[in-house]
Amino acid sequence: MQYHFCGVGGSGMSALAQVLVHRGHNVQGSDRTFDRDPDSELARKLQALGIKLVPQDGSGLHSAIDEVVTSTAVEASIPDLERARELDLPLRHRSMILADLLNAANGIAVGGTSGKTTVTGMIGTILQQVHKKPTVINGGIMLNALGNGAIGNVLCGDPDMLVAEADESDGTIAHYWPRVSVVTNIGLDHKPMDELIELFSRFVSRAGVAVLNSDCSHCNTLLAMSPRCRTFGFRADAQLRALDVDCRAEGSTFTVNGFPVMLAVPGRHNVANALAAIAAVHAIGVPLRDAACAISEFRGIQRRMQIIGTAHEITVIDDFAHNPDKIAAALATLHLLAPRLRVWFQPHGFGPTRFLMAGIVRAFRLGLRQEDELHVAPIYYAGGTATRDVSSHELADGVRSTNLKAVAYDDREASLAGLIANAGPRDCVAILGARDPQLTETAVGVLAAIDARGPAR
Fold this sequence. Notes:
The chain is of the alpha/beta class. It has 3 domains: 2-89, 3-Layer(aba) Sandwich (Rossmann fold); 96-297, UDP-N-acetylmuramoyl-L-alanine:D-glutamate ligase, CATH 3.40.1190; 306-453, Alpha-Beta Complex (Protein-Tyrosine Phosphatase, Chain A), CATH 3.90.190. The protein has 15 helices and 21 strands. It has helices at 11-22, 32-36, 41-48, 79-86, 94-105, 116-129, 193-205, 217-220, 268-283, 288-294, 324-337, 350-367, 392-400, 412-422, 439-453, and strands spanning 2-6, 26-30, 52-53, 67-70, 91-93, 108-111, 134-137, 154-155, 158-165, 180-183, 209-213, 229-233, 240-248, 251-256, 259-263, 306-311, 314-319, 340-346, 373-376, 405-408, 427-433. The strands form 3 sheets. The protein has a 10-stranded mixed β-sheet with strand order 8-7-9-6-10-11-12-13-14-15, with helices on both faces. The chain has a 6-stranded mixed β-sheet with strand order 16-17-21-18-19-20, with helices on both faces. Helix 6 crosses helix 9 (268-283), helix 11 crosses helix 12 (350-367) and helix 12 packs parallel to helix 13.
């Protein structure tokens, strides 16, 4: 088969493209990011893996292409899709191709509004450590998968042992019929709660085994949807329960059903993620003792509590937190690392900010302390049509109304300058946000600026 991927630089698209190349298919793709920067690291890695890159102007499409792959993030008006329609080429959403691979493999699909990328990576690590050779298709960069030119969002292994992150944001999770479905949690993100419950109900009902979070009330409503459910959590009624939990800056220790676990990534939310991963592999026959031991090798996901570095006793962290649950988990974990936080938050789009505003404000109100600071950058605009009837000032005003320190800016550079100027010894400076591909670069720049600035006076 010959595939053309529109937006091949996206995390989910590039992961799928790599798996198809590994399985012997011809794959090419376009991405406007590569049109602007054809020599980027990601572009070079994709080409080295055998994926041909063409301009996103329609010129790379021809009649020999079997399928044109698109995603929810790709506008229908781009030249590639216009040319595909002219040539009458079949168009398929990436989720449909992923569903073909996952359903044929009778695999593990990981869903949930928070934590699914981390749990997917944890499952992959456990299976590797117990001498399986999984194929893992993830939406983030797995630190365990980096090296030797790898991008890190894929492990290419046994086609019949496939683990994939399943996305609910565009409803495509409904296409999967997995051997094991995992629901990490269900919280407000992307869609109204009633729509989310319906999506996850179908997801669970189609699985051979459903792994559900007993600490999530919405997950508990799904128990009746599957005849075979495994539960995990901190509650006494969880089938896989964490006890003796000790969360520290360097990681966590706990026991699961009597077996000790050492986790190298911090935060109580990652204890829950580890429970989900252990429950998922146990459902396909991995002994609990082996899974509990193996997960200690998990090193994390890029942009999930990723330490960029330390300068003048100030540590800079890069994190994907952008919805209420993720922000709450990030703040709780950051407080393990430092006595005072300097948080820079970039809301991700006008629609999501409007939809999640109340929840985001509440998460910051509950998670910040009096000595902390919140610096809110202008809302990130990725392009396309948007109603700009909400601003960062509204968010900061809501947080500040409880006498917390929060300031909004009309200029991104000014927001970073304010963040850097106020950072002092033993502070943790955290860069929070999603969608913007430059956020890690931003965090690196903040660290460099703090280093160049010298010790705080």
